[in-house]
Amino acid sequence: MSEAVSPTVSLPQDPAVDATIDADRLDDSLAVLGALVDECRLELAADGLHVRAVDPASVAAVSLDLPADAFEQYAANGETVGVDVSRLGEVVGLADPGDSVRLVLDAERRRLHVLVGELAYTLGLIDPEAIREPLDPAEMEYDCPAELAIAGSDVSRIVDAAEMVSTHLTLGVDADPAAFYAEASGDTDDVALAFDGDDLAALSPAAVESLFSLDYLREMARPIPADSEVTIALGTEQPVTLGFDLADGPGEATFLLSPRRSVA
Amino acid sequence: MSEAVSPTVSLPQDPAVDATIDADRLDDSLAVLGALVDECRLELAADGLHVRAVDPASVAAVSLDLPADAFEQYAANGETVGVDVSRLGEVVGLADPGDSVRLVLDAERRRLHVLVGELAYTLGLIDPEAIREPLDPAEMEYDCPAELAIAGSDVSRIVDAAEMVSTHLTLGVDADPAAFYAEASGDTDDVALAFDGDDLAALSPAAVESLFSLDYLREMARPIPADSEVTIALGTEQPVTLGFDLADGPGEATFLLSPRRSVA
Amino acid sequence: MSEAVSPTVSLPQDPAVDATIDADRLDDSLAVLGALVDECRLELAADGLHVRAVDPASVAAVSLDLPADAFEQYAANGETVGVDVSRLGEVVGLADPGDSVRLVLDAERRRLHVLVGELAYTLGLIDPEAIREPLDPAEMEYDCPAELAIAGSDVSRIVDAAEMVSTHLTLGVDADPAAFYAEASGDTDDVALAFDGDDLAALSPAAVESLFSLDYLREMARPIPADSEVTIALGTEQPVTLGFDLADGPGEATFLLSPRRSVA
């Protein structure tokens, strides 16, 4: 849309950020962030979009990277902006399938212009300093020897089943025979899911087991595409990481969830 | 259905009104009326159905006309009946796609028989005198020099976007360059939509602008078919009118909404 | 799934019951039971599954029979187990379309293993003695001379329409001309549905009429497949029975609902 036809939108002459991306692609990415946080910092680096965020309880974290080539057009030079994720998602949600979304940063007036077809939405930015610090990658070294890959739909199935009997579940791997399993116990009922080598896209086994909160896994499972391949790393009383591709390849996201102390 | 098989339904011998219409067609028309009123007067004239109604707050009005040829069969001679619009809509909603609805008026017993397949619903009528007077057309002369036509889906898009930031929006037209625009401002965010000549089915421009309540526009946008062409007339601090075809042509409806005082 | 890959599930060596059935087929059957009861007794006889249950208010009853050949594989010898119907339904609901469900009874530990793909759900059983006695078939001899058959979709349509005006409805049959009818009366509106011979798959008429609660009929109509043929038996101030096939043939279910005293 040209400025001329929209009396209220005055785009900056030489914006620090000017990027265009498929609406669904951006929507999916925002859904991943929205699973853990309401507000977060978007780092618009020269090579693409990078996000690191931790949930308010510091129990879970998310990292998301959309390289420049995941955009139809991308120009940025390292600006970091604070945004209301769910609000931005609502705006992008107004797009029709196949629409593109153009993001133009007005750094001076601290506003992000979101342009979708005839729509020009001006999003007020949040001071990045006011948003909680993401985890320090240095602190994120964990001992997770077991790795495997399952379908996104299986992650949802595990959560659905476990929620029937409990508020938390155990994720573990058996070394011999090699298998990935999820277990939850309730007062009268128990649930167990087991995936052997044949069920898994990949499996490097090790005898490990950790306990996790289902509330967080529910939120994490929601935005993971059912047909995506999810790479899971597990240890004993260690965090679990769930990694998957965004935007059919170019982008990637990883959820990290801290373990719960098991009630012995 | 024949009377014989239904012991409870006794249709009048020589009904004042006996009309049959496609169920979806009638359903769509009732949805338009239901956007503004719960009860209204249906004028069943010889040439078709005519409705004029004003909302309880006298802020908005609707007019609807379904000519006789929009019906599969139509016989009436000027009866005016008061009906519960939403209730009648529920009954018609019981029809299967492709079903026809037959309306038979029992003027004496003040009941409307609604016949759908094996179903005979007897709707108690409301005294027309008990229903608020529609606006006097003589009072409905407004100065709205700007006219344009957009898709029904765009009307919904405008309302969806504006609701994100405010409870009211500005609709306006620019003369040069010719454009139709909608704007809403919130505490932190602003929304603007602009449609130039290329986006519009028709546009006779004039520099005008008025402020409207989104609650009413939301209700009005709901029953407007996404693929219909909506004719909009605008003035400055004047009501807006939204006109569109019903029943794929033969019928037509117009919403009218009074402007709000702008908060200077 | 093999035991090996699932550390928590240890299936009994020589289970009293070991049956496999299409998930949708079992799901549909549980929905029928769930319409009236939360818990019920499943009799796993050598020739198949038999269920007789009565609702907590003793107003309605259900009988359901799934012969052994409705299962992909069936082995049982007359065990009767008490189960939480809705819970079992939730577990079966986790299956994907086309999945099979395997039921393995651990009589000793009073648990039912429900195996769906990688999922092993261990359902704690309920003491059958703790579940209210079903009706004694000897008490279930009624005088219902009128019989007819209509589509499941018509049963729903009758309930939908009657609920608009009342909390109960009359079901009746006229002998001459032969017709099945449903009627409900409200303060201002009335509803009547009539089905003559042409509308009915079968009709053996007799002048009968009884009054029933819509709350129960609503629950009963829900699990009846829209395209199924429902056999209805009616009398005067007698219970109504609604019979229909399950699992496209091999199984069958019958609802029974006691009449209400008509308010003269």
From TrEMBL, chains A, B, C:
Disulfide bond is among the record's keywords: no
Protein name (database record): DNA polymerase sliding clamp
Stored InterPro entries: DNA_clamp_sf (IPR046938), Pr_cel_nuc_antig (IPR000730), Pr_cel_nuc_antig_N (IPR022648)
GO terms, molecular function: DNA binding; DNA polymerase processivity factor activity
One GO BP: leading strand elongation
Domain of life: Archaea
Quaternary state and interactors: Homotrimer. The subunits circularize to form a toroid; DNA passes through its center. Replication factor C (RFC) is required to load the toroid on the DNA.
Primary role: Sliding clamp subunit that acts as a moving platform for DNA processing. Responsible for tethering the catalytic subunit of DNA polymerase and other proteins to DNA during high-speed replication.
Family label: Belongs to the PCNA family.
Record's keyword terms, sorted: DNA replication, DNA-binding
Residues covered by the Proliferating cell nuclear antigen PCNA N-terminal domain: 33-110
Keyword flag Nucleus: no
